[in-house]
Amino acid sequence: MKSRLIHYSATNALLVLAQKPLATQLKDFNAWKKDGVSIRRGENHIKILEAGDSYERGDGSIGTSWNVKHVFDVSQTTSKIKAAASVNVDDRQLLKALIHKSPVPIQGVDELPRGMGAYYDNEQKIIFVRRGMEAHDIFRSLSKELAHAELALSSPEYSRESAGFAAYSVSYVVCKRYGVDVSAYDFSALPDSIRDAGPQTVRAALNEISETAKDITGRMNRALEQVKAPRAKEQER
Q1: Domain spans in the chain, listed from the N-terminal domain onward
Q2: How far apart are CA 11 and CA 182, in angstroms?
Q3: Rounded to whole angstroms, how far apart are CA atoms 211 and 8?
Q4: Which pLDDT tens digit goes with each residue over 43-80?
């Protein structure tokens, strides 16, 4: 779900998951109408939260009110979305996009401990990648270690153990978004820090995962657009 609705907050992604698990594109009634699209008769709206006005709390701090917004998924409409002509991106280009403007250097090595495919060394601020792997294995391993690097650079309290679940989740989201096989990922055993946490802690953890995934996929999208633009022009000729 989070890989499909990556631009939504973790809270809204969970709300959509509970109401419409396979949703991919959400707009409110007026937005769909503006696009010349109608909502199918009998469809129920999906509730998400939208930031409202700011207000001053009793202690002088500023809070934000939240409003319920009603939206509909594209599957609930009369829209017949046509897939835009896409430009195939091979594994090499996908990996190049993944490391585009990496926050830390990436270095190839012949071996890593415990058969790891990649490893982020927080002391040296560098990611080591084991040579000789298949492209998708590199992508999975490297995406997780890039997440570790992002999390380490954004938090002075970073530790590999405490950030493990977040980095694993970010890797899943990134792989899922770009069509890399995720069948080996397993979320059946949640860490105690998540399983026993309250709603506020869980939301904070999900937001951290969301923001880190957006940072990585944002860089990737910009790199892939640079690849697609020249090819698109060639196809128009």
Answers
A1: 10-76, 91-236
A2: 23
A3: 10
A4: 999 999 888 888 888 898 898 888 999 999 998 999 87
Q: Which pLDDT tens digit goes with each residue over 68-122?
A: 999 999 989 998 754 333 446 789 999 999 999 999 999 999 999 999 999 999 9
Helix boundaries (H) for the chain:
10-19, 29-34, 91-98, 135-154, 164-177, 192-195, 199-236
**Region at 62 (left for phi over 0; alpha for psi -120 to 50; beta for the rest):** beta
Q: Give the angle subtended at the CA of 137 by the CAs of 129 and 168, to the nearest 5°.
A: 85
Provide the token pair at 47. 């509730």
CA dihedral 29, 32, 37, 42 (to 10 degrees): -30
First to last CA, the chain: 38
| Residue whose structure tokens are 């969970």 | 14
